[in-house]
Amino acid sequence: MALRICVIGLGQMGGNMALTLSRAGFAVTGSDLFPAARERLAAQGLEVVTPEALPDAEVYLLSLPTSAHVSEVIERAPGLLQRAPKGSVIVDTSTSDPAVSRALAEKVAAAGLGWLDAPVSGGPKGAATGTLGMLLGGDTATIERVAPMLEAMSAKRTHVGGPGSGHVVKLANNYLCAAHLLTTAEAVAMGARAGVEPEALLAGINSGSGRSAVSEVNFPTWVVNERFDSGFTTGLMRKDLRLARDTAAELGIPLALLEAVVAAWHADPDAPADSDDFNHIVSPILARATDSESAQ
């Protein structure tokens, strides 16, 4: 029998995940605080309800902006701790604070529910096509219970440890992505000033050890052609970088490069703005390559 799934949070990621799971044959109900989000998904054939009318389900899949939103949905009465049927599983696909996730996982277990943190990568397109990457934090038995759902949502799943581990690895991944955007932009700017076309420089980098997903995917897909429509905002990346910094601080490990990357991403709140595509962080750097005054 197909799992009954309730998707909470119907933004670009959650909405597309809900539609993907529905097309795969699962019984999916979606919910969102905002009527416009519910109406948009209802128009695409998804069954939707208000947050006050959440149905009984075997899986509650959360796709929310921050740990605070996740905590509210789970803890604030009548939250999932009180409303979810015993034995159901809460799967948090948000990029959340690992410490908060671990605390929530304990409360969820005490309430007789299962927990899995499963932050995702691949953007709205990956959510819409079932080709996400997922980092799983939880026990093996819980993963096996929801495996059909995970397989329908993603192309790759990596179990990285117990509760909270998925979010630790996701923050590490986003830190590296944020750093690679800065360093690749500087490399492209240097090459452009020296007369090397960005496409040629990227092709050279991607044939060597300096390549990354940023040079292989982000630059050709969203930067060089100036599309800047990845579906992930600068504000969300800034939030994730702050979480990574705070996690390192809680662990008592000084990470100078992480601090520098966080500072660079927060140096100018308007360039790019929080609402801009996160790849726009490269724009001020690339602009220097064509700035005639800086060349003098």
Automatic annotation (TrEMBL):
InterPro entries: 6-PGluconate_DH-like_C_sf, 6PGD_dom2, 6PGDH_NADP-bd, HIBADH-like_NADP-bd, HIBADH-related, NAD(P)-bd_dom_sf
Coiled coil: none
Keywords from the named record: NAD, Oxidoreductase
Domain of life: Bacteria
UniProt domain 3-hydroxyisobutyrate dehydrogenase-like NAD-binding: residue ranges: 164-283
Protein name as catalogued: NAD(P)-dependent oxidoreductase
Annotated organism of origin: Halomonas dongshanensis
All copies of domain 6-phosphogluconate dehydrogenase NADP-binding, residue ranges: 4-161
Keyword Transport applies: no
Classification lineage: Bacteria, Pseudomonadati, Pseudomonadota, Gammaproteobacteria, Oceanospirillales
